[in-house]
């Protein structure tokens, strides 16, 4: 949510609020890959992590589907992956819009 504020001397200011309450299920898998590449993670480790999620499926009777986003709740990797993706997002925002980031 982006909110417009009035700072000192009647200057406009903006505040961005990010709801991270359901962050784990909403993380896109390409964002995880991007964040891992951005910090120089060796490709074989990236592939190993991608395989964890590529092979995750849900089956209900004969219906089978795979997931394109989300990390596993309770997985020891999930908190670290969340922080990496969040930091990559912040870095991209700061790089693309340096005047907006404090």
UniProtKB/TrEMBL annotation:
Residues 7-96 form the Reverse transcriptase domain. This is Reverse transcriptase domain-containing protein. It comes from Eutreptiella gymnastica.
